[in-house]
Amino acid sequence: MILLVRDDREFLCAPGEELHTDLGVVDVPEDVEAGETLETHLGEEFRTRALRGPDLFNHFERTGAPMMTKDIGLIEGHTGACASDRVLDAGTGTGVLAAYLGRLGADVTTYEQDSEFADVARGNMELAEVSENVEVRTGNVLDDIDDLTEAEGEGLGDATAGESEGFDLVTLDTGDAPAVVEHAPDLLVSGGYLAVYSPFVENTREVHRTARDVGLSDVDTYESIQRRMDFDDRGSRPSTAGVGHTGYLTFARKL
């Protein structure tokens, strides 16, 4: 897939597709590449652009409110997620977090309870070109917890005998996150990270308490707030539009 961009407008297109706009019709070549200029039949120009993370966020099919990019950035930054990581994710939803982690090169197994949401997420993984390293499973991660703790990493890498099995990172965006956190010491490798997102402080408090109770270290919770700045002739100030708060993030680590 490729983006066709004109000013502040953008269209997601497949190679070989015919795009109809109010500026005319664009025939997208089969061999289209990023950085090209395409003209409509009326002579109006569009630039082509490859999809990056923020573009996927904007063009994924949504099944609810996706995790915001600012929260994903905090998760990546606080946990040091990288290409060699094995990740267990629960609460796939639209799949934005799973896709970002997959594009880092991590091997991700993500659980979504709603079968229709899971199907949408699989389509989004194809758009993000991470289907090979992001597996979307339908179901509740708690139902598979015994298998995951007994054979962590199976199918997620090439760990050989004697190597530490387990997940380098567990990410949760579910209402039953505290129950999953109880199993975090068995799921994580030594030094592995837990990251839990919740829009509600009650759930967050329970996650924080549970992480401490099961012996995880470096347990910290942050409220995630971001404000866009407005600049005009009158002066500069944080924007009064939009939502600054999206949720709380709890991080913890296995010793």
TrEMBL record:
Protein name: SAM-dependent methyltransferase
Organism, as annotated: Halocalculus aciditolerans
Keywords, ordered alphabetically: Methyltransferase, S-adenosyl-L-methionine, Transferase, tRNA processing
Gene3D superfamilies: Vaccinia Virus protein VP39 (3.40.50.150)
GO molecular function: tRNA (adenine(58)-N1)-methyltransferase activity
InterPro entries noted in UniProt: SAM-dependent_MTases_sf (IPR029063), TRM61_C (IPR049470), tRNA_MeTrfase_Gcd14 (IPR014816)
Pfam families, alphabetized: GCD14
Keyword Ribonucleoprotein: no
One example of a Gene Ontology biological process annotation: tRNA methylation
Gene Ontology terms: cellular component: tRNA (m1A) methyltransferase complex
Domain tRNA (adenine(58)-N(1))-methyltransferase catalytic subunit TRM61 C-terminal: 67-230
